Amino acid sequence: MKRILLLSILCALFGAAPAATKDAPSRAADKGCKWEKIDDKALGLALWVERCDYGFRKINLYAKQNTLMQHYSDGGEDETLIEVFDLKEGETPEAGVKRVFAEHTPDKDLVARCLLKPYDDDPVPPGRKRYTFKPNAALQKELDKKNDPGDIPDPPCGDWGYAPDGIQYFETQPASGARRILFVRVGQDEPLYDENTLRLLPPNP
After folding, report:
1. What does each C-alpha distance from 25 to 126, 176, 191 come to in angstroms?
2. Maximum separation of any 2 CA atoms in the chain, in Å
3. Residue 122: what pLDDT?
4. I need a labelling partner for 7 at 20 to 30 A (CA). Which of 21, 188, 191, 192 fits?
5. Helix, strand or coil, per DSSP, at residue 4
6. Model-level pTM?
7. Is 152 inside any structural domain?
């Protein structure tokens, strides 16, 4: 009886234990689309994606090796949306982000003059860190002289850096223990995947 009374008092003081986080999309599906879960160990990622049927066009998102791809039924090349990269032995997530950026940026002058910065254009879900690459002060000064203020400039740090006309970033999930990082291409519009549900999976043992 005393134990029941004590538990009742504790619940009243501190509230009930929080419910487990629901594994579900964070927004409603678009018209003509429905959400579907992808949980792919080869990709190294679990997430929710939309499969869309507009009659004249169907859009399918699928995993291919370490990438999430988008396919249009009416033609055109498949688009790469997300890429997953394994960290090297002893490599921190931030060091991995710098390495992947350098490996995919042919202009080594940009590699030397672009700095790793937090990506904070949008709210970041708990447990994640997002990064991009932006010009250092000297490079930014040069670009400001060349760019017309009325135009949208080209990505100043190349295809894997900050995109003035869209959203893309590197994402790490340090608490996951997955030893992987992501490069996420959102683009200009709301993507057909839920960027708030990306969950890195650990490599196969």
Report:
1. 16, 19, 13
2. 79
3. 85
4. 21
5. helix
6. 0.85
7. yes
CA 141, chain centre distance (Å)? 29
Mean pLDDT of 19-36: 84
Question: 67 burial class (0-12, 13-18, 19+ CB within 10 angstroms)?
Answer: middle
Residue 51 · residue 62 · CB < 8 Å: no
Residue 205 binned pLDDT confidence (cut-offs 50, 70, 90): low
Q: Tens digit of pLDDT for each residue in 131-168?
A: 999 999 999 999 999 888 778 888 999 999 999 999 99
Is the confidence at residue 101, as pLDDT, over 70? yes
Q: Which domain holds residue 148?
A: 30-200
Q: Is the pLDDT of residue 177 over 50?
A: yes
- Does residue 5 lie within any of the structural domains? no
Give the span between the Cα atoms of 183 and 130, in whole angstroms: 9
Question: Taking a C-beta distance cutoff of 8 angstroms, is the pair 192, 33 a contact?
Answer: yes
Distance CA 6, CA 150 (A): 67
Tokens coding 93:
């997530």
Tell me whether residue 20 is in a domain. Answer: no
Residue 7 lies in a domain: no
SS3 readout for 85-147: EECCCCCCHHHHHHHHHHHCCCCHHHHHHEEEEECCCCCCCCCCEEEEEEECHHHHHHHHHHC
Residue 159 near residue 101, CB atoms below 8 Å: no
Residues contacting residue 107 through CB under 8 Å, at least 6 positions apart:
158
